[in-house]
Each structure stands twice: as C-alpha cells, then as structure tokens.
Amino acid sequence: MAAASDDEIDLGISLETVATIVDQARAVQGDEEAELGAAADDGGDDTDVAGPDDITEDSLRAYITELNEDEQAALIALCWVGRGDYEAGEWDEAVGLAAERNDGRDAADYLLGIDNLGDLLSEGVAAFGLSLEEIER
Questions:
Q1: Measured between alpha carbons, how far apart are the two ends of the chain, in Å?
Q2: Counted domains in the chain
Q3: pLDDT band at 8 (very low <50, low <70, confident <90, very high)
C-alpha cells in the first residue's frame, strides 16, 4: 500500500463530497447554540454568509442517501478511522466491514446518529495526511 503522493490516495469518495458533508454535519449537529447566540446578537458581522440557516438534517440525510453504496461505506469507514477504531493502514478492512454492515441499512441514519460526525470525518481524512481545509467549497 504505497502511495506516491497524497493526491493518489483513493478513499472511494471525493474530498469535495466529504468536505460538503463535514460542513453540513457541523452546521446541523454543532452550531445550534451558536445560531441561538447569533440570533440574539443582531450585530450583523457574519449574517451575510449563507449556510447553516439553509442546512437541515433532512437535506444532509438526502445528500448522504444520494451517494452510492461504495461512497457511503467510505464515509462510515472514515468515521471509524477518525474515531480511532481503525488506522489508515487498515483502510481496506474498514471499508469492507462498513459495506457489509451497511448492506440493507440506511447509512444516513447511522451517520447522523454519530456525535461530532463532521469532526470525525475530518480527523479520518487527516489520518491519511490530507486536509479538507485545502478543498474549495
């Protein structure tokens, strides 16, 4: 399993897709308190930025459901790597088990039931020496 460069690592899902899910998951799961504080502030510093107000759990669920089975398995495996259940070197095993466990089930239900989904996906990507910060959104 030698990778010539970070760009040649095949996670089975595009980093753009993972970055989108990370952003949406963080908006849905983590920013509820921040949104409440911003609504009371009315200072207007960052209110022009579209995003969290338009993102719902249903839209994130639909986005994940639209992915193919291989991409869904890769997302689940990235969560497991980010959580420390698997190392990057055990990627094939993690993806295989994720695909097996996901067969006939709703990946979106499983993933949205995980606390800090966005952070775990980001940490999973980082385990491969990649960064979602470099991905244009």
A1: 30
A2: 1
A3: low
